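Title: [Solved] L-threonine 3-dehydrogenase 3D structure

Original question kept below for reference.
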Amino acid sequence: MKALVKQHAEPGLWLVDVPEPEPGPGDVLIRVLRTGICGTDLHIRSWDTWARGAVSTPRVLGHEFAGEVAALGPDVEDIAVGDLVSGEGHLVCGRCRNCLAGRRHLCRSTIGLGVGRDGAFAEYVVLPAGNVWVHRTPVDLDIAAIFDPFGNAVHTALSFPLVGEDVLITGAGPIGIMAAAVARHAGARHVAITDVSDARLEIARKAGADLTLNVSEHPVAEAQRRLGLKEGFDIGLEMSGRPEALREMVGNMTHGGRIALLGLPAEEFAVDWSRIVTSMITIKGIYGREMFETWYAMTVLLEAGLDLSPVITGTYGYRDHQAAFDEAATARSGKIILDWTG
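Solution (posted by the thread starter after getting help):
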């Protein structure tokens, strides 16, 4: 079968033939229909410091996908050949304290699909049945392919109650944009989002943000002024991983404000801990999705009319992966989809 592989320990990706995987006991073989390109995939393609330490070659990339069940290994129940599915890309041990307590998203031994084991940028992928999410209600294939990052957005946005709250999102990448859509749908009073890319801020407007602010031109305090806020934002969702973004967010929160952090910094940095303490700000780190509570929430949000279509800005056949990755690497695009049906 064809697969997009990190064949060598150097920048680049290679479309090559690899053996089709076979499902073992408890496994599901999935014919891949669509995949989404993630920032993780961009890091691996460029072969940066993180990728060199996290990935061994050769490795089939990809963890955002939708596909059709092609075959079942022994001992698989409640999944049928032909089902439309997505997959939870964090494979957990099932034996640690958190796994045994049902908190699988906190497993210390998590292996990432497309990072620690071969992934979904291929015509077929194998996953444990416990990581397969069956779409029981109709869903667009492109949206099904991005349930993984959509889950990051939902997990972050719904970390704190949003009804009637004023929400600040720093970072208008695809996940930040989806978080804006979720916050708007979940009943926030105002949703403001910041970035340095006007193109991405325009996508965020289409997705439901009330106010977009280019922070290369205006401070975050300008968002407060435009919205008529007198005491600061109630909820902060930090999606960029940028030191200046978190500092600005902390400086514009109300006393007792709550911040959820999804953006992953490249290195350690200082923040004003005195402000955090004296303003009694709560900070919560977010990683991945709650298995599978977040997945239920995603499905229900879509059933209730949440529209994620603005975040998808390009679709390419998998043979055009070079152009697709080039677009995904710009500061102008939303989610880019690879079509594996051709």
